[in-house]
Amino acid sequence: MYALFTVYPIYRQFDISFYNWHIFPGANNPFMGWSNYTAIFHDPVVRTAAFNSFLFIVVTVPIQMAIGLFAAAMLTDRLPGSMFWRAAVYIPVVTSWVVVSWVFSYLFASQGGVMNAVVGFFAGHTVSVNWTAQTWTANMVIWLLSIWKGVGWSFIIFLAALDGIPRQLLESARIDGATEFRVWRHVVLPSIRGAVTFVTVLLVIGAAQVFTQIFEITKGGPYNSTQSMMTYMYQQAFSNFAFGYAAALASLLAVVLFGLSAAEIRILRRQDL
Amino acid sequence: MTTAVEITSPRPHSGLTGLGPGLFGIRKRNRARLAVAIGLALFSLGPLLYMVSLSFQPNGGLLGATVLIPTHPTVQNYVQAWTENSFSRYFVNSLIVSIATVGITVVIASLAAFAFARYQFPFKEVIFYIFLASLAVPNLLLLIPQFLLMDRLHLLDSLMGLILLYVASNLPFTIFLLRGFFEAIPREYEESFRLDGAGTLRVLTSLIAPLSLPALAVVSMFIFSAAWDEFPVALTMISSSQHYTLPVGLADFIGVHTVAWGPFFAASVIATVPVVVVFLVSLKWFRSGVSLGAIR
Q1: Structural domains in chain B (count)
Q2: Please, what is the angle between helix B213-229 and helix B159-183, to 10°?
Q3: pTM of the predicted model, to two decimals?
Q4: Are the Cβ atoms of B141 and A209 closer than 8 angstroms?
């Protein structure tokens, strides 16, 4: 089953990417060689989409991990209402992307949105910023939503990792006169390195596939300026029916991601880190 | 886990602060941590509480609703959401797809994980690493070939097809987590069980499954919430509205009625409740079940 629905499609992906592919049965699908790939490098929207995806990874992954680790450090030891706080931090993870995309759109609505009311309160006059209709403010809304919804995931993994550190280990380091910073640097962080690697790799893979929140909030607009690799691929395949071109995009992204994951694992596994 | 630390700690009970040294030494800064916890909870739950609040406000007064407590609470939005747009059908579709995905994935993954944990067979580790490597293959990048495959199999626009794709995409991670958990179960239990004449199937159903209940509960929660929330694949594979799942239905809803925020948020709340309930129920097993230790 796995072979049928995952391994075979991987092969098929590369196969299709060399054709000018049509979905209709019996259609003539001319072999294109590498031309789908060369076209990618001349497509300005690909450049925007790649840049946006890259920026999305660079912005959301470190912030999610930092807040997740911070929250885990705060909630790992016993605290009144421990279970409640932990559940609260994780709940955004199980909510639906479509739902929360619209909740955030509403929060940032140009007319009567909460964010404009807040900004207006501090500015002293009413403002009506159209957050989701301008490239950079729209990107910001998308980042904020993604961080908000993603924190809980790295949180529970860091929580499990921090729970597993024997507290005596920390205690003896402190008795030896280590500062809090040194305890974290030399005892805590090395103990959770596996979790850090795991979270980094999976978050980057997830972030590179950012789709629903962009599809729902901006549809990639205005003028393709908030397009990500996935939303652009989707548009090419299922709106423009350029399946070969979209498959080439996907193949290229898959290769880049695979290399990226391998590099991350290498760097994070290094003993001297 | 921390319980071991707490038991061996010489420090006595000190009210709410728990036992023994914590991550931050003896001064555990409980008050500061509590303040941070409240902040985190507000950050996480705020937007959702706002959504709940909006769903109870009359649609007309919605834009500009910056108050959290509705002044004129109404359930009109819920009535409208549930009766219009065949929303109840999307809800049932999502239930069918999510429950079937959980059931099939857990059964297949348990069998596979048990084989990986207990048996030797040719290329065992190679096969396992191929599974693992597929965690690094972004699922969405397979959208196009999967679409063409489902077209060929005549499973486009069918819930069955959607279930098959969800099962396939959830298998690797589930097998990975369960293998670690099964390996931690001492073999001696199994041997004494087999001495009493139990076959492999009995071992699985009467010994391994009850012992792994926490792990099975937690992976079921992960799979359920993934299937319940999944959007891009469903959007691509499902074309007729009678087969929409909740995310696709909700996205369609907002497209048709761009101004009907009240009913939309009511529908969103209805769509969010089941997955939150499943999560809260699974919390009971989280502590012992998340053998995320396998990751460390």
Answers
A1: 2
A2: 150
A3: 0.81
A4: yes
Top-confidence range, A184-188, A269-273, B60-64: A184-188
- Which of residues 34 through 93 in chain B touch A, CB cutoff 8 A? 34, 36-37, 40-41, 43-45, 47-48, 50-51, 54, 63-66
* Residue range of the domain that includes A123: 45-244
Q: Which domain holds residue B268?
A: 81-294
% of chain B at pLDDT higher than 70: 78
Closest CA to B278 of A236, A253, A93: A93
| Cα–Cα distance for residue pair A160/A163, rounded to 1 Å | 5
Closest C-alpha among A109, A106, A159 to residue B40: A159
Residue B9 lies in a domain: no
pLDDT at B23: 65
- Given a cut of 90, whether residue B12 has pLDDT beyond it is no
Query: Any idea what DSSP says for residue B22?
Result: B
Enter the tokens of residue B201: 């199937």
Give me the count of residues in chain B: 296
**Same-domain status, A31 and A54:** no
* Pair (A34, A133) in one structural domain: no
Prior bond to B274 cis, omega within 30?
no
Of the residues B63, B143, B275, the best mutation for testing chain A's interface (the one with the most A CB atoms within 10 Å of its CB) is B143
Residues B86 and B218 in one domain: yes
ipTM of the complex model: 0.78
**Hey, is the C-beta of A83 within 8 angstroms of any chain B C-beta?**
yes
Rounded Cα distance, A189 and A175, in Å = 19
